[in-house]
Amino acid sequence: MKISLLTLGKTTDARLSALIDDYQQRLKHYIPFEFVVVPDIKNAKSLTQEQLKTAEGEAILARLTPAMDVLLLDEHGREFRSIEYADFLQRKMAAGRDLVLVIGGAYGFSQAVYDRANGKISLSQMTFSHQMIRLMAIEQIYRAMTILRGEPYHHE
Question: Fewer CB within 10 A of the terminal residue: the chain, N end or C end?
Answer without folding.
Answer: C
